[in-house]
């Protein structure tokens, strides 16, 4: 009996487990209720490496004694002051409303809706540019170049996420890439079906990597055959 193909193994107990016990937890803006209570100041006391993130994590101790995590911006140092609140200044790392940020400022960890904690520009080296303010909201330019109008009550951190040169150094060898993927519980390498043997995948076999048969398959095909374009309405390029 042959080995079950990858499509058949999906959905059962996973062979890999995400090492979530080593992750540093969720990092987001404070709740709107605590944010509105007033401006609080804190001091950066440490930097941490989070295996689940591409950016370093800063630990900030606030005046009330609480310690919170912050996605570290570029140029932030231990001992620097960080603030959050309605009247916080637009200085490095501070959490403020978009309506209070001047045009042309670079920000990160931007909320999509007020109170969601931050959704945009959280990876290393990313940022969003404040373009303009109008009655409908705040217009921002994403890293992709696209323009987006957000609610002026959304919050953001001032600055650019640290670790911008992460992608400049190549992995060079497969072993290094494997260690990075394993740290996040990802399957690597992921072999394509045409590079397998015919016993391992319907697209396998042959003297060169080609499918060798139509890749369209019925919706009612058995699990070992149900690969490729499953019950497509159309195939080929759009005219």
Automatic annotation (TrEMBL):
Domain Large ribosomal subunit protein uL2 C-terminal: 90-223
Stated role: One of the primary rRNA binding proteins. Required for association of the 30S and 50S subunits to form the 70S ribosome, for tRNA binding and peptide bond formation. It has been suggested to have peptidyltransferase activity; this is somewhat controversial. Makes several contacts with the 16S rRNA in the 70S ribosome.
Region entry Disordered, spans: 1-22, 190-239
Descriptive protein name: Large ribosomal subunit protein uL2
Name of the encoding gene: rpl2
Keywords of this entry: Ribonucleoprotein, Ribosomal protein, RNA-binding, rRNA-binding
GO cellular component, one term: cytosolic large ribosomal subunit
Subunit structure: Part of the 50S ribosomal subunit. Forms a bridge to the 30S subunit in the 70S ribosome.
All copies of domain Large ribosomal subunit protein uL2 RNA-binding, residue ranges: 11-84
Lineage: Archaea, Candidatus Undinarchaeota, Candidatus Undinarchaeia, Candidatus Undinarchaeales, Candidatus Undinarchaeaceae
